[in-house]
Specification:
296 residues, Alpha-lytic protease prodomain-like, Alpha-Beta Plaits
């Protein structure tokens, strides 16, 4: 847990400082060069800074061991934060769309070339940050770090879209094709759509976990195959598993021969639990209920 917490904080701090630099650069050059797309990308980076700071605050809470008041642990703190980040990104996307649409009713001019170089720099920087954050989130099964990775992912496509929009606007101005001057506005709407799409995915996953949706059926079948490797298990009456942030809780009802003693049933349950937790290191608890089995 301590290693997981320290790695999580390291990723969050890297995200904070990188996003601060990118935010300042994109807001400054986006405003000064007249690029709505780059400026919108800067607003997204500001949201990234806020998200990373929140993750830094919650990462220690999520890794706390179970206690009397929270016997199932504190893992859902990460899920709540992921949902908050999703709501934040949703609001950002709506703001960018409104600003872009209003911009169509005013005369426009092409942004400066500097805006394109800023957008391209952001693209390459975010590509590296996304791959790094995603790798760490998968290794430590962290929803909070995964939220940071998704933020970086949104910026990757957003930055390249901004660069394309700026380029087309500059071409339109040089060739006196006025309609192309609005490419920067269109690119900012596209950026907003990408942010909205990722926000929707994050909110959907967060709500499903908070509502304790069963894990996917393929994973359930894998659990079942391990349980059935114990010959004493005659039948699986019910199996459920739910995510609790970065770990999984499993509920299992199995039928064994009715003549088995309490000790034999207890030992079998411990063996099944141990096997499942050895195979899947993200399983933190396995609750097993035994039913008597009678031959027909």
């Amino acid at each position: 847990m301590e290693l997981r917490e320290s790695i999580g904080k390291k990723v969050a701090w890297i995200s904070v400082w990188s996003n601060v630099v990118l935010m300042v650069g994109k807001l400054l050059f986006g405003f000064r060069s007249g690029s709505d797309a780059v400026f919108a990308d800067g607003i997204h980076s500001a949201a990234d800074v806020f998200a990373s700071v929140i993750v830094l605050f919650v990462i220690g809470i999520a890794n706390k061991p179970p206690d009397k008041e929270h016997p199932y642990g504190h893992g859902k703190a990460e899920v709540i934060i992921s949902g908050i980040v999703g709501i934040l990104l949703l609001l950002v996307s709506l703001y960018i769309i409104v600003e872009a649409v209003l911009g169509f009713f005013h005369p426009v001019k092409a942004p400066d070339l500097m805006a394109m170089w800023v957008a391209l720099f952001s693209f390459f920087a975010k590509q590296l940050l996304y791959l790094y954050s995603l790798k760490v989130s998968q290794k430590y099964n962290s929803k909070a770090i995964e939220a940071i990775a998704y933020d970086h992912k949104a910026d990757i496509v957003a930055s390249i879209a901004a660069a394309v929009g700026v380029s087309i606007s500059i071409i339109g101005q040089s060739e006196n094709v006025n309609v192309l001057l609005y490419a920067d506005k269109v690119a900012s709407i596209f950026v907003a759509y990408l942010i909205f799409k990722i926000a929707k995915e994050m909110l959907s996953e967060s709500f499903n976990i908070l509502l304790e949706r069963n894990v996917n059926q393929e994973l359930i079948r894998q659990y079942e195959s391990i349980v059935f490797k114990f010959p004493e298990v005659k039948r699986i009456d019910r199996i459920r598993a739910r995510e609790h942030g970065h770990y999984i809780l499993v509920d299992l009802r199995i039928s064994i021969d009715h003549e088995k003693t309490i000790k034999e049933g207890h030992d079998l349950g411990r063996a099944i639990k141990k096997r499942l937790m050895e195979k899947y290191d993200n399983i933190q608890e396995v609750l097993i209920h035994l039913n008597p089995y009678y031959e027909d």
